[in-house]
């Protein structure tokens, strides 16, 4: 079982603890220094674990930024792990798996091997190969069976592809590749829902997926834009251990920057923008039940 194989991996330990404690770990998509600092400040203030999520864009933009993020994660006074989300290029995965932090450990604690843009058999074959490569480096892995429709900034748009719910067969197939975390499709989508009334999650499907995953892999939740706390709580109750967020914590910052850019000094924009992201992260840590769990 993948959870046993990488039991000392920091991300695996973090999500195992979340499942045992019945709380969710906030996973924040991070594009800049303000977001990173806000996340770590929030985690330390709330004594909460957190995962920092970088898209492959961050590596292509600047490997120095990746080094900075890895250093910040390991310098925090609470558990902070670094995850590469939606890594869709096998060559990029091979490169980032070799990046080391200052202490000689892999910079990324986990990588999402997202081969979902390939046909199923090729998806599974590539996933299996890349999982083995990551595991050899001590890096945990994640995959997305089914199709979580839509797209978001930094991820290949899949809105034109047919949305498919994760099936029981796919759970078994992907668990067999050796992954550590599973991101199922059960009505969740990347991008916008257009209102809470349009969020249609198949909770019985999620429950059945968790039963098949129990003791083998942990479940993570993608596509949370617009989710209220009660939906998050229900997903956690049904087995979700990490909750990926983007606009849920970034919208106050985006609104502030849109209104004040060019009107306030850059240092004020950075300071006040960081405070807004931190506040949003702290609120969600409370909602997810991770506050005080570090």
Automatic annotation (TrEMBL):
Its UniProt entry gives the catalysed reaction(s) as: beta-D-fructose 1,6-bisphosphate = D-glyceraldehyde 3-phosphate + dihydroxyacetone phosphate
Q: Which family does it belong to?
A: Belongs to the class II fructose-bisphosphate aldolase family.
Which residues bind Zn(2+) 2 per the record? 114, 144
The annotated pathway is: Carbohydrate degradation; glycolysis; D-glyceraldehyde 3-phosphate and glycerone phosphate from D-glucose: step 4/4
| Cofactor(s), names only, from the UniProt record | Zn(2+)
Cofactor annotation remark:
Binds 2 Zn(2+) ions per subunit. One is catalytic and the other provides a structural contribution.
Q: From what organism does this protein derive?
A: Saxophila tyrrhenica
Pfam families membership: F_bP_aldolase
Function noted in UniProt: Catalyzes the aldol condensation of dihydroxyacetone phosphate (DHAP or glycerone-phosphate) with glyceraldehyde 3-phosphate (G3P) to form fructose 1,6-bisphosphate (FBP) in gluconeogenesis and the reverse reaction in glycolysis.
Question: What GO terms describe the biological role, i.e. biological process, of this protein?
Answer: glycolytic process
Q: Give coiled-coil spans as residue ranges.
A: none
Instruction: Quote the EC number.
Output: 4.1.2.13
The UniProt keyword set, sorted, is: Glycolysis, Lyase, Metal-binding, Zinc
User: What InterPro entries does the record point to?
Assistant: Aldolase_TIM, Class_II_FBP_aldolase, FBA_II
- What is the protein's given name? Fructose-bisphosphate aldolase
Catalytic positions are 85
The source's superkingdom equals: Eukaryota
């Amino acid at each position: 079982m993948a959870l046993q194989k990488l039991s000392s991996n920091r991300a695996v330990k973090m999500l195992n603890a979340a499942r045992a404690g019945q709380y969710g770990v906030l996973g924040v998509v991070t594009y800049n220094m303000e977001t990173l600092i806000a996340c770590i400040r929030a985690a330390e203030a709330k004594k909460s674990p957190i995962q920092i999520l970088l898209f492959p864009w961050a590596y292509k933009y600047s490997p120095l930024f990746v080094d900075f993020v890895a250093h910040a994660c390991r310098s925090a006074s609470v558990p902070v792990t670094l995850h590469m989300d939606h890594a869709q290029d096998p060559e990029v995965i091979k490169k980032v798996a070799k990046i080391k932090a200052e202490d000689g450990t892999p910079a990324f604690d986990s990588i999402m091997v997202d081969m979902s843009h390939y046909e199923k058999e090729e998806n599974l074959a590539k996933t299996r190969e890349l999982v083995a490569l990551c595991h050899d480096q001590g890096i945990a892995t994640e995959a997305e069976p089914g199709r979580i429709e839509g797209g978001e900034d930094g991820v290949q748009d899949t809105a034109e592809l047919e949305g498919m719910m994760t099936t029981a067969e796919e759970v078994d197939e992907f668990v067999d590749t050796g992954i550590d975390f599973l991101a199922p499709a059960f009505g969740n989508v990347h991008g916008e829902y257009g209102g809470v009334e349009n969020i249609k999650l198949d909770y019985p499907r999620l429950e059945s997926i968790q039963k098949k995953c129990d003791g083998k892999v942990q479940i993570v939740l993608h596509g949370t834009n617009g989710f209220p706390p009660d939906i998050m709580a229900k997903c956690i109750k049904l087995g979700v251990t990490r909750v990926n967020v983007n606009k849920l914590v970034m919208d106050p910052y985006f609104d502030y920057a849109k209104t004040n850019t060019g009107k306030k000094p850059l240092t004020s924009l950075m300071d006040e923008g960081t405070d807004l992201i931190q506040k949003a992260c702290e609120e969600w840590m409370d909602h997810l039940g991770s506050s005080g769990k570090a």
